[in-house]
Amino acid sequence: MFGCHIGTSLTRHNGDVAPRSKTTVTRAKERTRDLTRSVVRPTPEDAKFKHVAAIWAIRALGATFTVAAILSFVVIPVRDFRAQSKALDAKTAEFEALADVNEQLQIEVSELSTPEGIRNAARSLLGYVLPGEQRLALTQMPALPTDMPDTWPYTMVSDIVRVRAEVAQASGNALSPLAP
């Protein structure tokens, strides 16, 4: 019988069954099975590794490797990141301080660009006065000691200082004790 059923077994004239023709998928499965049999073959009992000390040494080595990997991929980079963040914050603060100084200098330059600014700078730095102006230099009185010995020449001076201080306090004018 010639078959209308492809892939089914055919009976030969001597009674044997003809083998099926193999498809490409079937051939690929057989090849893969042949290749993986040697890899997935179970390990015989006599070939198994039974040394407990060696097993623990391998585990310790694996744990050491794991700790080293965690240190090198997590801990050290995080520490470096924090140090770099602190350095960046310090540089940012320094930059902001320099920007403030730069802004103040720019304001000073713009003030010195005008004639009035030049005149004011000459007055304050060089003591420049315009014709017809009179310069008065007022300095602050230094704090003088008022405690003197209680002997004869010093008692008169102490009385004079006390009276002048009272007059200055009563008049409200700080220069009045200096007036003749």
UniProtKB/TrEMBL annotation:
<keyword id="KW-0472">Membrane</keyword>
<keyword id="KW-1133">Transmembrane helix</keyword>
<dbReference type="Pfam" id="PF04977">
    <property type="entry name" value="DivIC"/>
</dbReference>
<feature type="transmembrane region" description="Helical">
    <location>
        <begin position="53"/>
        <end position="76"/>
    </location>
</feature>
<protein>
    <submittedName>
        <fullName>Unannotated protein</fullName>
    </submittedName>
</protein>
<dbReference type="InterPro" id="IPR007060">
    <property type="entry name" value="FtsL/DivIC"/>
</dbReference>
<keyword id="KW-0812">Transmembrane</keyword>
